[in-house]
Design brief:
CATH topology of the largest domain: Immunoglobulin-like
Strand content: 35-45%
Order of helices and strands: HEEEEEEEEEEE
Bound molecules: dinuclear copper ion
Distance between the termini: 72 Å
Helix content: 10-25%
CATH superfamily of the largest domain: Cupredoxins -  blue copper proteins
Shape: elongated
Structural class: alpha+beta
């Protein structure tokens, strides 16, 4: 009897150790993810009138401006594409994207990054990202937005 009891106790301790180990492991993983992925959670910058996106304000003139060592990109996600169709930035400099839609809901996912915005008409989403490697990054719409959804792409060219 005594022997069985001790065996069970040892077994329980092993499980406790295993659970503690898992806990530490997940904490390390989560901390690591926050460190590498932190800061690119899209924020809602402001609300605007979706019917005026094409005619008034920054989004009627989609563009990338460079000021104070950083880029600011005003992007229109529309059915079916992005304006500007191509964005060019230099690597290692922060880029703040402001994205909105004049029509329906779209996605703004930049491949090989963790930029992933749900673009909602009437809202301006904001996200800041620094590209570390040069290359061409596609912008992909990952929200179903109509018949042309699968052809909705944009392009970000990151120069050395
Ligand atoms: Cu835009 Cu799908």
């Amino acid at each position: 009897m005594e022997k069985n009891h001790r065996a069970i106790e040892t077994f329980e301790r092993l499980w406790l150790l295993f659970v503690l180990g898992m806990l530490v492991f997940f904490l390390v993983v989560i901390t690591g993810m926050l460190r590498t992925h932190g800061g690119t959670v899209p924020e809602r910058a402001e609300r605007i009138d979706a019917t005026k996106v094409r005619t008034e304000g920054n989004f009627a003139n989609p563009r990338v401006v460079f000021e104070g060592g950083r880029y600011i990109a005003y992007v229109q996600a529309f059915a079916y594409g992005y304006l500007p169709a191509e964005i060019t930035v230099k690597k290692g400099l922060p880029v703040t994207f402001y994205v909105t839609s004049p029509d329906v809901q779209h996605g703004f996912y930049v491949e090989n990054t963790n930029i992933n915005i749900q673009v909602i008409p009437g809202q301006v989403a904001q996200v800041t990202y620094t590209f570390k490697r040069p290359g061409v990054y596609r912008i992909i719409c990952n929200e179903y937005c109509g018949l042309g959804h699968q052809n909705m792409f944009g392009k970000i060219r990151v120069e050395d």
